C-alpha cells in the first residue's frame, strides 16, 4: 500500500479532472479542466466535442496534478478512474489513459462509479476537517446525489471496510440539473444553467408562479415502456417507493408553456445574443449583465422554478429520511452547490435535529478528488479492475 497515494482520473461528462489523494483523506492536488466554453454556444454538452476535449486535456491535467502534489509517478500506489455512468466516448478517454498508466507503472487500476464518487466528496471533506475527530463515517446516511445526470437517493453505510449503497429513490425522467440546464437554455442563459438561475433567482418572487409536482405512480412506469432518458436508465424503479421518485420533465414543459403564453421567447433570444452569441457579446458574461436583460416577470419565473425544484427535492428527501429513520443526510452533486437548496435543507435538518453535510463548492461539481477518495477502501480491500475494463455509460450504484 506504500503511502496510500492514489491518482484518480475523471472524464465522465464535460470536465477533465485528475487528483492525488492520500489514504482517502488528504488531497494533495485536484485539477479540473472545464469544457464549458466549448459547449456554451450549444446550450448543452455535445458528446463528440466532449471526447475530443478530454483527449486534448487528459495528459496535461494529469501532469499538473502530479506537479502540484509534488509527486513522481513512481510514488503512486494505484490509479483510479471513473468507469460510469456517463458519456461512453468521454469515459473511454479516461479509462484508456488510466489503464496505460497503471500498466506502465505496474500498479493496480481501480474502477469507481461516478455516483459513489459524489458521495465520497462529502466524506472526503469530513475526513479532512476537524470533524474527523468525531468521525461519523460509521453511521448510515441518506445521500441525495443531485447533478446534471442524476437525481438519486441512497442509504449508504460502511460495511466491512467497504461501503454499501441501497437505492431508495431516483428520477423517472430528467435529472434536476438537466431541468436547470434546459430552463436556462430556454431563457437564453448560459450553460451550465444552474449557476445562472441560482444567481438570478434571488431577484425574483419565488411564489409568483405556482409550479406543482404531482405524485408519481410507479405503476405508470411499469407498463412496459422503456425509461425515456439517460438518467432514467441507470437503475430500475420497479421496487422503489413512489413517494421517493422524482420527475423533472413536467416542470420544464410548464416553464416552456409559461414562456409561450407570456411571449417571453423574443426577449430570451435577444438575451442570448446580448450575452453569448451577438457581435458585441462580452468575453465573460456576468450575472449583472444577465440581470440587466431580465424584466421582473422573467425573474419571478426563474425564482419560482428554483423554489419549486428545491421544494420537491426537500420534501422527498426528508420523507425518505423519516421513513428510514436516518439521522444523517448528505447532499452532493452539481445542484448541491445551489444556495437556496443549501439554506432550505440546512434549516429543515436543524428543525428535525438531524446532521446534514454538503461538499465544498469545488467538490460539489465533477472532480477527481472524490474518485480517489472512493477508491481508497477498494485499494485496502484489494478490489481491482480487470484489464478488460471498459466504459459503462449506464452503470448503476446499489440495488
Ligand atoms: O455534478 P456535475 O458537475 O456533473 C454531473 O455529474 O452531471 O453537475 C452539473 C450540474 C449542471 O446541470 C449544473 O447546471 C448544475 O449541476 N449546477 C447547479 C449549480 N451549479 C451547478 N444547479 C443549481 N445551482 C447551482 N448553483
Ligand atoms: Zn457528477
Provide a compact summary of the structure.
By secondary structure, the protein is of the alpha/beta class.
What layout of secondary structure does this protein have?
Blueprint: E1 5-10, E2 15-22, E3 26-34, H1 36-39, H2 47-69, E4 78-84, H3 88-105, E5 109-113, H4 114-128, E6 141-146, E7 151-159, E8 162-170, H5 176-186, H6 193-201, H7 230-233, H8 249-261, H9 265-277, H10 287-291, H11 296-324, E9 328-332, H12 339-351, E10 355-357, H13 361-364, H14 369-381
Helix pairs in contact: 2-3, 4-14, 5-6, 5-8, 6-11, 11-12
Bound molecules: 5'-O-[(R)-(carboxyoxy)(hydroxy)phosphoryl]adenosine (KG4) and zinc ion.
Question: What does this molecule look like?
Answer:
It is built from 14 helices and ten strands. It has helices at residues 36-39, 47-69, 88-105, 114-128, 176-186, 193-201, 230-233, 249-261, 265-277, 287-291, 296-324, 339-351, 361-364, 369-381, and strands at 5-10, 15-22, 26-34, 78-84, 109-113, 141-146, 151-159, 162-170, 328-332, 355-357. The chain starts with a strand and ends in an 18-residue tail after the last helix. It has two domains: 5-135 and 362-381, ATPase, nucleotide binding domain (Nucleotidyltransferase, domain 5, 2-Layer Sandwich), CATH 3.30.420.40; 170-361, 2-Layer Sandwich (Nucleotidyltransferase, domain 5), CATH 3.30.420. It is 44% helix and 17% strand. The strands form two sheets. A five-stranded mixed sheet has the order 3-2-1-4-5, sandwiched between helices. Strands 8-7-6-9-10 form a five-stranded mixed sheet, with helices on both faces. 5'-O-[(R)-(carboxyoxy)(hydroxy)phosphoryl]adenosine binds next to helix 5 and helix 6. The site of 5'-O-[(R)-(carboxyoxy)(hydroxy)phosphoryl]adenosine has 19 residues, from helix 5 and helix 6.
Amino acid at each position: 500500500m506504500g503511502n496510500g497515494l492514489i491518482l484518480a482520473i475523471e472524464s465522465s461528462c464535460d470536465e477533465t479532472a485528475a487528483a492525488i489523494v492520500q489514504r482517502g483523506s488528504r488531497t494533495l492536488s485536484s485539477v479540473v479542466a472545464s469544457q464549458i466554453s466549448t459547449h456554451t454556444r450549444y446550450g448543452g454538452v455535445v458528446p463528440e466535442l466532449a471526447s475530443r476535449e478530454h483527449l486534448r486535456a487528459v495528459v496535461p491535467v494529469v501532469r499538473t496534478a502530479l506537479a502540484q502534489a509534488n509527486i513522481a509517478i513512481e510514488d503512486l500506489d494505484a490509479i483510479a478512474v471513473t468507469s460510469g455512468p456517463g458519456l461512453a466516448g468521454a469515459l473511454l478517454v479516461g479509462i484508456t489513459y488510466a489503464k496505460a498508466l497503471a500498466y506502465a507503472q505496474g500498479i493496480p487500476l481501480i474502477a469507481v462509479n461516478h455516483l459513489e464518487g459524489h458521495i465520497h466528496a462529502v466524506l472526503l471533506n469530513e475526513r479532512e476537517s476537524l470533524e474527523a475527530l468525531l468521525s461519523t463515517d460509521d453511521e448510515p446516511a441518506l445521500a441525495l446525489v443531485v447533478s446534471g445526470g442524476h437525481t438519486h437517493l441512497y442509504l449508504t453505510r460502511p460495511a466491512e471496510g467497504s461501503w454499501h449503497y441501497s437505492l431508495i429513490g431516483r428520477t423517472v425522467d430528467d435529472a434536476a440539473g438537466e431541468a436547470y440546464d434546459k430552463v436556462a437554455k430556454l431563457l437564453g442563459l448560459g450553460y451550465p444553467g444552474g449557476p445562472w438561475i441560482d444567481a438570478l433567482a434571488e431577484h425574483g418572487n419565488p411564489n409568483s408562479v405556482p409550479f406543482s409536482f404531482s405524485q408519481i405512480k410507479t405503476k405508470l412506469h411499469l407498463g412496459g415502456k422503456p425509461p425515456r432518458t439517460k438518467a432514467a436508465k441507470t437503475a430500475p424503479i420497479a421496487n422503489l417507493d413512489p413517494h421517493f421518485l422524482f420527475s423533472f420533465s413536467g416542470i420544464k414543459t410548464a416553464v416552456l408553456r409559461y414562456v409561450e403564453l407570456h411571449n417571453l421567447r423574443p426577449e430570451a433570444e435577444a438575451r442570448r445574443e446580448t450575452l453569448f452569441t451577438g457581435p458585441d457579446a462580452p468575453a465573460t458574461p456576468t450575472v449583472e449583465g444577465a440581470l440587466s436583460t431580465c424584466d421582473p416577470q422573467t425573474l419571478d419565473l426563474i425564482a419560482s422554478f428554483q423554489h419549486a425544484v428545491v421544494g420537491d427535492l426537500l420534501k422527498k428527501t426528508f420523507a425518505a429520511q423519516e421513513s428510514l429513520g436516518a439521522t444523517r443526510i448528505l447532499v452532493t452533486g452539481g445542484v448541491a452547490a445551489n444556495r437556496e437548496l443549501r439554506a432550505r435543507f440546512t434549516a429543515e435538518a436543524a428543525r428535525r435535529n438531524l446532521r446534514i453535510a454538503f461538499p465544498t463548492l469545488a467538490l460539489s461539481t465533477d472532480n477527481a478528488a472524490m474518485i480517489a477518495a472512493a477508491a481508497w477502501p477498494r485499494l485496502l480491500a484489494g478490489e481491482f479492475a480487470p484489464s478488460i475494463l471498459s466504459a459503462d455509460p449506464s452503470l448503476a450504484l446499489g440495488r
